[in-house]
Design brief:
single chain, mainly alpha, Growth Hormone, Chain: A, 2 domains, 17 helices, globular, MFS_dom, membrane, MFS, transport, transmembrane transporter activity
Length: 454
């Protein structure tokens, strides 16, 4: 196997693990709730704690990978990811499970921050869209297999087996990555690590993510405003710092980079909670088993897996904004249609809408990633990859935050139990309304980015 193919194989395999875990766990959430006595809001934090941690640590690890070598951070991430996955499998209470998921997110952040950067720096510009499309397809393959295997494993072996399998798969990646990835000290950049900027950034992001689900209450508003103020302070400090965590000046005039990242943030904010919500709908309202639920939820990621390499390759020839904006438009249609979901909706209707959304996601993701990575210099690949990953993870966390906010507003803390199917149905429908409306400005940002080829 050639060096480039080895790099593609290792990074693709690593990129498969995190979405596979996320989609498999979403299917197992009702079983976790029954086993550990958790309500819908607590179960939401099983997913959100992971996303929160990954979003907070992603940008610092991206900067560290540019400074000290991407292979080092990548390897450390896989090892930590495996250890914390086993810890989640052994968790005996709601608190321990959420804590282990938080640390699992830190390991995931190291993988997110380096995989795309390693891949981008290893292939010429004319092949970039193709290999990024393959990498994105591996993400969607994980999303495809997660519901099916997760549902089957939950029914036969229990929800803990999912975490154990993830730990084993990550362990298998470790020796392959250690032998196949080249040391990249020549890519490292000079300067000191911006510890104070990293702390302000992480704390601000955590306040926003933690406070958003508590809106519109006073406590949520206070957390949200403090987080926004912290990000403003972070931006001010970074402009004056000699070696900043994020070189804002380098990207401030880069319209493609800015609007592509904004589009990614909105896209993931509007779409990530889809499987989370449909898992509850199919199991708690329709009364389906985890296995049947997993099979139904395969429709969307299968479409993404099949079409992402095609969309990525097309973005090497066509302007990414054309493909990505078309995908965002399809997403608006699919999410809007899901807002009409009710207890009597047919399975055919649900599968059809997933196919539409799968096509929209595929047209958006690979071309958008290609646009971001093609808009910066090679020396900034690590921080560009981490910035895009931060938009993705922050968007995913916001998506969960919107869902949890709907649960809290409509069901309340006392009525958030899984048995409240009427409140659950109403919460799901209102969440889809918000997501569809959110995607409309995302389509504008996607079109606004402009061309990457002059």
């Amino acid at each position: 196997m050639s060096a480039r193919r080895s790099i593609l194989f290792v990074t693709t395999l690593a990129s498969f693990l995190t979405p596979f875990m996320g989609s498999a766990i979403n299917i197992a959430l009702p079983a976790m709730g029954k086993d550990l006595g958790m309500d819908t809001i607590g179960l939401g934090w099983v997913t959100t704690s992971y996303l929160l941690s990954a979003a907070v640590f992603l940008l610092p690890f991206g900067r560290l990978s540019d400074k000290f070598g991407r292979k080092k951070i990548f390897m450390l991430g896989i090892v930590f990811f495996a250890i914390t996955a086993f810890a989640s499998a052994l968790a005996g209470s709601e608190l321990l499970l959420i804590i282990s998921r938080f640390f699992n997110g830190a390991g995931g952040a190291m993988i997110y921050a380096t995989a795309i950067a390693i891949l981008t720096s290893s292939f010429p510009r004319e092949e970039r869209g193709k290999v990024l499309g393959i990498n994105v397809a591996s993400v969607y393959l994980g999303l495809s297999l997660g519901p099916t295997l997760g549902g089957l494993m939950t029914s036969l072996l229990g929800w803990r087996s999912i975490f154990a399998l993830i730990g084993l798969l990550a362990t298998i990646v470790i020796p392959i990555a250690a032998t196949k990835l080249e040391n990249d000290r020549k890519l490292s950049v000079s300067g000191t690590f911006d510890l104070s900027g990293s702390m302000i950034y992480g704390l601000s992001l955590a306040l926003i993510i933690y406070g958003f689900p508590k809106m519109p209450g006073l406590q949520g508003l206070i957390f949200l405003l403090c987080g926004i103020a912290g990000l403003w302070l972070f931006a001010v400090i970074e402009k004056k710092a000699p070696d900043p965590l994020l070189q804002i000046s380098s990207f401030s005039g880069n319209q493609v980079f800015i609007f592509s990242n904004l589009a990614a943030f909105i896209n993931y904010s509007a779409t990530f909670a889809l499987v989370f919500l449909l898992s509850f709908y199919l199991q708690q309202i329709k009364g389906l088993s985890p296995e049947k639920t997993g099979l139904i939820l395969m429709a969307q990621p299968v479409m993404m897996t099949l079409l992402s390499p095609v969309a990525g390759k097309l973005s090497d020839r066509l302007e990414p904004y054309v493909l990505a904006s078309s995908g965002m438009g399809l997403t608006v249609i699919g999410l809007g249609a899901f807002s009409f979901l009710n207890p009597g909706s047919s399975i055919t209707f649900i599968i059809l809408l997933q196919v539409i959304l799968g096509l929209g996601f595929a047209l958006f993701s690979s071309p958008n990633t290609n646009a971001v990575m093609s808009s910066v210099n090679p020396s900034h690949y690590g921080i560009a990859s981490a910035t895009l990953g931060t938009m993705r993870l922050t968007g995913q966390t916001m998506s969960m935050g919107i869902s949890l906010m709907m649960f809290a507003l409509i069901m309340g803390n006392k009525g958030a139990g899984l048995e409240n199917t009427a409140g659950l149905m109403t919460s799901i429908r209102y969440a889809f309304v918000v997501f569809a409306l959110l995607c409309i400005p995302g389509t504008f940002f996607s079109m606004k980015r402009g061309k990457i080829r002059k």
